[in-house]
Fold this sequence. Notes:
With 506 residues, chain B is mainly α. Chain B is 72% helix and 2% strand. Chain B has a two-stranded antiparallel sheet with strand order 1-2. Chain B starts with 11 loop residues before the first helix and ends with a helix. Chain D has helices at 2-22, 26-46, 50-78, 81-84, 93-111, 121-131, 136-144, 146-164, 185-209, 216-232, 244-267, 279-303. The relative contact order of chain D is 0.12.
Amino acid sequence: MSPAALLLVTALLAPLAMAAGCLSRAFRSRVPGLLWLAPLPALLAALWLPAGTAVSFPVPFRMVLALDQPGAILLGGAAFLWSAAGAYAASYLRGKPGLTGFCVWWLLTLAGSLGVLIVADIAGFYLLFTLASLSAYGLVAHEQTDAARRAGLVYMVLALLGEAFLLFAFVMLAAGLPDPNPLIADAVAALPGSPMRDGIVALLMLGFALKMGLIPLHVWLPLAHPAAPMPASAVLSGVLVKAGVIGLVRFLPFEAPLPTWGAILAIAGILTAYGGAALGVAQRRPKTILAYSTVSQMGLVAALLGAGLAAGDASAAGLAAYYGLHHTLVKGGLFLAVGVAFASGGARRWPVLLLTGLLALSLAGLPLTSGALAKLAVKPMLGYGVLSIAVSLAAAGSTILMLHFIAVMVRETADNPPSSAPWGENLPFLIVAAASLLIPWWLYPTLSGGALASGWSVASLWKLVWPMMLGVVVFMATGRFAGLAGRVPEGDILVLAERQAPRLARLPAAIEGLDGRLRLWPVAGFVLLGLVIWLGGGFLLAA
Amino acid sequence: MTPAYAATPGGLLLVLAVMLPAAAALVMLVLGPRHTRVVALIALALGVVVALATGLQLVRSQAALIYVLGNWQPPLGVALRADGLSVMMLAVTAVVMAATGLFARELFGLDLATADGRLATSFWILLMGLWSGLNLVFVSQDLFNLYVALELLTFAAVPLVCLDGRGETMAAALRYLMFALLGSMLYLLGAGLLYGAYGTLDIRLIASASHHGPAMAIALALMIPGLLAKAALFPLHLWLPPAHAGAPAAASAVLSALVIKAPVFLILRLVADIAPPGSAAVAGQVLAVLGAASILFCSVMALRQERLKLMIAYSTVAQIGYLFIVFPLAGVGDGTTPWGTIAWTGGALQLTSHALAKAAMFMAAGIVAEAVGHDRIRDLGGFGRVLPLTATTFGLAGLSLMGIPPSGGFIAKCLLLTAAAIGGHLWLALTILAGGLLAGGYVFRVMDRALATPAQRLALQRPIPLRLEIIPLVLAVLAVALGFLPLAPFGLLQIGRPDIALAVLP
Amino acid sequence: MSALALTSASLFGLCGAALVGIGLFGIVTNPDLLRRIIGFNILGAGIFLVFGAVARRGAAMGLGGDPVPQAMVITGIVVAFAATALAVALLRRLASLTGSATFDAATPAPPPRSDA
Amino acid sequence: MSLVFDIALVAGLIALALHVVVTRDGRGAILGFIAFGLLLGIGWARLASVDVALTEAAIGGGLTGMLLLRAHAHLGREIAPEAMARGEPRRWLAPAIASGLVALALGAVVLAFPRPAPSLAPQAVAALETTGLGNPVTAVLLAYRAIDTLLEKIVLILALVGVWSLSRDAAWGGASQLRPAVIPEPLVFLARVLPPFGVLIAVYQVWVGADLPGGTFQAGTILAAMALLVMLAGLRPAPPTQARALRAMLAGGPALFVLVGFLGVAVAQGFLSYPEAIAKPLIVGIEAALTLSIAGTLALLVAGPPDKAPAS
């Protein structure tokens, strides 16, 4: 096995090996301090390995790993955030109960979420996707509060639903091919000609949209992300939703345009971008606002991919990954920032809030930040029509949401006692923040195809600035949405659905009642005779 | 006339598979309680060797094993025959039996005062009876001989249900006995009609008959529901939940993992081997409808159970449903040979992985009940912290039931779904998916309790030795390891099948 | 002889069919468990009579009937007796333990007690 | 003439069965059932199946009747009258229609059986000489389909183990209490007089069973009835179930059967085949051992679970 292949395999196996190591008592006590090491092989792989590196596992493990450009971009960002958040977690959770369990779930989620970015065969993808989804439950429900338990339940139900969508889609994808476990690329190449094409695409979109949190499948996200401990929220919101992005990137046939499906995805994305922002400004907890911001941002990625699918433009994949990288680092940084800011007071508070504000506005596309680069890079893909304007307006929404977030942060931290977060938390936060501001510059030329200088033109800047100004004006004009905050419960439409729950709960109760009747002897005996007669009639008719 | 059966090398292994446990039961009866366990363990070891040898012989000869008892050719005599599917069933049975035996040895060993008592001694003898009956069901070719095999199963299984001697389990056992008897009677009646029409009860001889009258239709219409009653498929599952939930853990494991598979296996024989194509198609449709209803209905019921063992028992009824939706998926009755299809393989894998996972789960539940003193799911918060291995067992077995990769259950579900997608059976595909979701729900309910950190640590009523916890864990790991099998039809399952399929065709 | 034997065989076959119906009806509807057990025996008698009719129809070679189904009936009668004995023993134990002879009202068993 | 008799017999059987199923009187139903069993024995004789007729009369009427009567008395003692008299309305119409339909379908099939009827009688007779037997039913039971008989013996033993397992933990291994509180004089008289004849008849049955109707099951049933009579009359207590000799007797028949079966692998043509020269002695020997086992098993099945603690 070549060194490159070995590194790729290590990227997947290292966290799993660490999780297995937790069986040993001696290792268990040291594992929290080592969490930051687990994603490093993946980070190295993302940095050093050329796109196209591939490795097949020996029989009976059917799995093929391969690195390509979008995968490498997302892998690098994700591994970086995992590492920083791991270091943060070691400090944040020190001495709290259930730490070992948390570490095991952390490592398993890590392995799954990174593996999904580099796996190339369908069964392997489903395996790692499932690993990430199910293990993340341990992170969501870790706090064991009522809210965490409810979030965990909702998360689990919807995650399993998403799994079901995907499983059926994958099975139909693979059904027409000779190899029972084809490479994703081969299966997708055959997709446009498949008789079950529309069903497959619909199920794929449903499954991955659930993971990305597109409205109305987003209900779990604003519950689950804030419920987790701070570092876990960072990776859930920063990395795990990208499993949906990479899913769409890998499984949608960008080579062959599907205008209808592209349009559907784009519209769903735009609506999500607006909806996420609108619902977010009605929230008052910083983590929940960030979660809604994730919903909104994933809507933009979906719109981008939808545009690419409609046009049959394969470069959408790389651009979506680039936008995803930006979001990974910024959103991860913001969640860490919330933790650090809550622990900072006095003189330490303002530098932290300033950096937080910068990150927040980067998400809205503040010039010179990664957000600006990301938005500039994707502009050509969106064209210059309605979609482009719609996305720009979404940036206005982001601005409003982020201003709301900053305002809430300032208010919430106002009474902090003068203190400072430990360096174990400050340092990861600073590193992520710095990386989020710097790394996108480095990748911009390869992805956008244009030189960095093209981003400096007045026209480009104007494109970025007018939505932000619009957002600022609206924010000012409506008085900071003071009246709105708290109006919409976390999980919005889920709460409405839950009000209908008693009605829904009647079905299982009815089933239980029916079961009780069926299990009465005279009824069961009669049913048996009925079956005899039914089958006898059927056989006689068939003969 | 050339004889229908020619004995093959290794055919005597089939006799051994049936007679060894039966002989062991006799020896136990004579030697008395003090030696029962030793005899049982020796028989278990020998039985596993026989199953292994049978498998090797089958693979080596690539043909079905045949034995003609007393050298009396059917129709006058009785023949034993083991094709790929039978051998797979023999092997699964041996594995689960061996694990159950070891588990029971440890479980009964917890309490030295009762290790040689009524419960343990009866358990061992009945277990041997069960094993003999199961093996006979899988290899016999004669419908009346199969009736005797079914009765062996019933008479061994019913007392197992009420071994703990409480009134509720007596009621459960009585209900089980009566419904199972009703099933056997219908089966026997059908067999009588077949004899009247064909003058033989040999499966192959009946299958090779060219003309089928109304006797065949009515006989099948009696036998299949009769067997369904024994398999506890919805809506005939009245007896199963209390019976399997009330039995001692080791007994529940065998009952749920193996015993209800025997009638399913016979239904398969009837529908796929004997029934004329038209009837087979009708039966396939009806069975699939019932199977799908079973999956959905009983999964919801499992979700609503308060007690762990009842939940697992309802899950058994739900999982049995998957075996019945195989019929239309494999194209039984539409004139093609189903043996090579992925649905067929998926069904076999579902059967195997469910047997392993369910046995592991019942044993795990037994450990929990033994350790905590109850099995109310609500009050089990944090059992994962005091019984980490058992919680792991439960989780791994749960993966297989839910069909989450990597596990045998996942591959089975994948194959069935693929068959449904290719065959255009959308409603079956949706049922499979919904069943997986609901299974996720009830497994999750328990795992949530296992992982919980209650304020007060769960109190153990008695220490649980590691050896006890290891056995179900091994079974659960096996169920997961099945997930590494290739996603393709097994060659093994086709051994000895095509000739019968041809005989059925006009 | 043969025509008469056939008629007689059919007659007992029909009697068997009727007994099967009566037995099934008793089993399904009778709430008294002991009576239900009797129903099983009537069902069994009907089934065996069908076998007997089949055997009688197969009379040949100087035999009054086909010996194979006759042998099956003997085996079946013994098994049916064993079933009756087991059912009766269970019923008696159930009555001693719970003071009632019914199982439909019984709710699922409460959790087993390891100390019992 | 004989057809008229048959019709009357069938009508009687159906009427009795209906009475047994619908009557409200529990004890009356059992007595009706015993009468039904005896009548059925005559029916079997009319079907030219003397072997079955003997078995049916002995087991179907006799032993089952005894079992049911004892159970009825026991339930009467254990169950409060108000628990018995639950006057729930019984839904009977739909089950009646369903049962009727099943019976009709069965009747139609019985009438539509193919002619000429398929029969194994010629083959059974043709193969008789290799077994040295004269009674084809015995040949089926102990040679052609010996596996059924052997496993059915295992079924009986499992049933017995199951019945024993229903005892209280303390009584396990002990003996059943069969002796009623008051023993009627005639019963004692019968118990003194009948057993020698019973044993004689049983031995005769086994002996002739090889060639004439009769055989191990019938003989076993008669022996079981004699043993029960003796125990019921209080002349002898039931043996403790843990007694080694008793268990050896119960397991002896099938064990010998299995041994001879495997002997066939070595010296004849496989499992459960007999060397032609000594086939008949082997079969009669197995029958003798089986008769004892069956007698013991049936008697103990009627006796029920042990309820006296074992002596040791």
